[in-house]
Amino acid sequence: MASDDKCISRMASGLPWENWVGKAVACPEEFPFGTVFIIDGRRWVCLDRGGAISRINETTIWLDMLVSEPLYRYGTIRNVFIVKK
Predict the structure, then answer these.
(1) What percent of the chain is helix, strand and coil (3-state, nearest 5)?
(2) Is pTM, for the whole model, over 0.90?
(3) pLDDT tens across 12-26, in order?
(4) Confidence band for 9, pLDDT divided at 50, 70 and 90
(5) Cα distance between residue 76 and residue 83, in whole Å
(6) pLDDT at 6 over 70
(7) Of residues 83, 82, 85, 50, the one with CA closest to residue 65
(8) 46, 33 in Cβ contact below 8 A?
(9) Bridging pattern class, strands 6-7 and 24-26
(10) Burial class (CB in 10 A: 0-12, 13-18, 19+), 37
């Protein structure tokens, strides 16, 4: 959604995305909002969902990071430490 050429959409958690660039991820529904993922020593918070965001297999999940520039090449697999909420 846009207003005066500015995106005013909110994430699935209801929070405005602008405050969470570089800190939020879209994660599979099995993880509650607020779940923390540590990726390469950096803390990310589950605050969004998405149609392609899912568990790929028993040990692999798809996360979509809210970033202004990609941190990894598309499809890169990283080890993740999950702090369940």
Answers:
(1) 5, 35, 60
(2) no
(3) 999 999 999 999 999
(4) confident
(5) 21
(6) no
(7) 50
(8) yes
(9) unpaired
(10) buried
Strands (E), the chain: 2-3, 6-7, 24-26, 36-39, 42-48, 55-57, 60-61, 64-65, 80-83
* Structure tokens that stand for 23 in this block: 């800190």
User: 2 forms bridges with which residues in the sheet?
Assistant: 7
Q: Are 66 and 73 in contact (CB under 8 A)?
A: no
Q: Which residues contact 47 (CB under 8 A, 6 or more apart)?
A: 11, 12, 13, 15, 20, 24, 25, 26, 33, 34, 66
User: 48-51 long-range contacts, Cβ below 8 Å, gap at least 24?
Assistant: 48/11, 48/12, 48/13, 48/17, 48/24, 49/12, 50/26
